[in-house]
Amino acid sequence: MCPEARALWDDLQREFVIDDEAGRLLLLSACESLHQLRAAEKVIEKDGMTQTGRDGTVRRHPAVSIGRDARNGMLQALRLLRLEPEPSPPRRLGRGPSAGGGVRT
To answer: Does the residue 46 lie in any domain?
Structure first.
């Protein structure tokens, strides 16, 4: 397990004391998924998000799907533990007055 995944395990165990078997398996799943996500990110950083096939077609690198699935697995395991990450504050959409939008006088 990568250091970040191990730190997640230690932090959540320290804060919430997950001591039942099902809870530990879910936490392990979240940590393993985080490890897979970070490994996929390293591959993508090295190889890029796409690959060119022998026939010249550009395709998504397999690590992109692996990373997406790992992230989803981690988030699902955390949700089942009722440890969902805090939602981000809402972002304002649109161009706004500084970008030339807004009310004209």
So the answer is: yes
